[in-house]
Amino acid sequence: MEVLLYFVLLLFMFFPFCHSFFKIFSPSKWGMFYTRFLLLDLRRSRPEGAMGIDLKAGGKSKKTKRTAPKSNDIYLKLLVKLYRFLVRRTGSNFNAVILKRLFMSKVNKPPLSLSRLIKYTKGKEDKIAVVVGAITDDVRVYEVPALKVTALRFTETARARIEKAGGECLTFDQLALRAPLGQNTVLLRGPKNAREAVKHFGPAPGVPHSHTKPYVRSKGRKFERARGRRNSRGFRV
Questions:
Q1: Does residue 181 sit in the same domain as residue 200?
Q2: Residue 43 belongs to a domain
Q3: One domain for residues 168 and 232
Q4: 1, 206, 215, 225 — which has fewest CB within 10 A?
Q5: Where is the composition biased (Basic residues) (predicted)?
């Protein structure tokens, strides 16, 4: 009995202290302290200068292909409108390819020369050659057969030579009337890697077996003609 009385007295003496202790170190308070500790720890462990990136709502874009041309050419936009309609209403794969190529950048719509056009349409003169790009003249060609060609653009001399030979230079809206499903056509493209810039791509010029074109100041005798370029000067690539 005496022990119980002592316990009650002690409880009354230390009640204010116990109350404040349990108030400070309650489970909810422990959670708050632990969260703050973790945040401080994360701040200390973060490397200097590390920053996040601001993404638009929805995260990163996984579809990066073009859905419209970058060009502001109103005639090109009208063609896109026409071929969007044809793709939707016909389901033709030919029209889908034309639409996709109309979206492409200038680098991906390389010109096709008259000589290549004749070469690729040999034995297919009755069909319409379709090029989503320009048709350019080639002075090395003397005889031009009668060809029906559809292109975004023709150089003056190329157009004159095709029409003089009895051929036709068509636009894409005319092609849509003649061949709405792409029937009786030959789809062609120009050489994409024939650009001057592409010649400089590849292993460094001067490395053995490299055929990369160097960026040289001049083509004279004194410019990149010594070691690595002649057998008499060490080695020749």
A1: no
A2: no
A3: no
A4: 1
A5: 210-220, 227-237
Assess whether 157 and 208 both reside in one domain.
Answer: no
Going from the C-alpha of 171 to that of each of 83, 113, 131, 153, 204, the distances in angstroms are 13, 17, 10, 8, 43
- Would you say residue 80 lies in a domain? no
Quote the Cα angle for 189-171-123, to 5°. Answer: 50
* Residue 130 main-chain phi, psi, to 5 deg: -120, 120
Domain limits for position 121: 106-192
- Predicted TM-score (pTM) of this structure: 0.70
Same domain, 112 and 175: yes
Residue 85, Cβ neighbours under 10 Å: how many?
Answer: 13
Q: Mind listing the pLDDT tens digit for each residue in 59-68?
A: 888 888 899 9
pLDDT averaged over every residue in the chain: 86
Residue-wise pLDDT tens digits, 79-136: 999 999 999 999 999 999 999 999 999 999 999 999 999 999 999 999 999 999 999 9
Is residue 119 within 8 A of residue 138, CB to CB? The reply is no
User: What CATH number does residue 152 fall under?
Assistant: 3.100.10.10
